[in-house]
Amino acid sequence: MTSGSGQNLASSMPDIKIHHDFRYGDLGKVLFLHGQVYNQEYRFNHEFEAYVAEGLAEFARKYKSDKSCLWIAEEKGDTIGSIAILERDNKQAQLRWFIVHPEYRGKTIGRFLCKKAIEFCQNAGYDSIYLWTLGNLVAARKIYEANGFQLIKKKQNQLWGHNLVEEFYVLKF
């Protein structure tokens, strides 16, 4: 696995590349991966894909390279993961679109992406990062907690054709 700088991260996965230079088509790749995985794994309906698309549009409109970033993990041209940071008010950042394709989970890609997002926020001068996730996304929650995110609140909600528990996490620097 290599980053955009060519740094070797895992010699067992040399074909995996991660870039963060916000290339044309990256938003579509993130949207497709989310729509595909969440429909297959959780049977989320079309409203979920619209929700992701709306957030990605906001990212594109408000993008500032020193305050927002999108990382894309790829293998042989296929998108296999992503994570993003969006600038918010009061020196806060929002972590979004953290996903690793099911075939690539458990191979440290998710941990690497999360660490990159946290490092970016520290270097950008943010005081904290927040995120919303779902209670059933256990692997992601473990990564958040291992990196110091604290669960602040939970709420039941009817979303994307399901009754789900939303969880709000914060990491303060």
| Range of strand content | 25-35%
CATH-defined topology: Aminopeptidase
Percentage of residues in helical conformation: 25-40%
Query: Which structural category fits the helices and strands?
Result: alpha+beta
Q: Could you say what the CATH architecture is? A: 3-Layer(aba) Sandwich
Order of helices and strands: EEHHEEEHEHEE
Number of helices: 4
| Main β-sheet, spatial strand arrangement | 1-2-3-4-5-6-8-7
Largest sheet, strands/sense/barrel: 8 strands, mixed
Could you give the count of β-strands?
8
The CATH superfamily is: Gcn5-related N-acetyltransferase (GNAT)
Protein model, in words:
By secondary structure, the chain is α+β, with helices and mostly antiparallel strands. The protein has one domain: Gcn5-related N-acetyltransferase (GNAT) (Aminopeptidase, 3-Layer(aba) Sandwich), CATH 3.40.630.30. 34% of the residues lie in helices and 35% in strands. Strand 7 and strand 8 form a beta hairpin. Helix 1 packs antiparallel against helix 2. The two termini are 28 Å apart.
Helices and strands in order, then pairings?
Blueprint: E1 2-3, E2 16-19, H1 26-42, H2 46-62, E3 69-75, E4 78-87, E5 92-100, H3 109-124, E6 128-134, H4 138-146, E7 150-159, E8 162-172
Parallel strand pairs: 1-2, 5-6
Antiparallel strand pairs: 2-3, 3-4, 4-5, 6-8, 7-8
Helix pairs in contact: 1-2
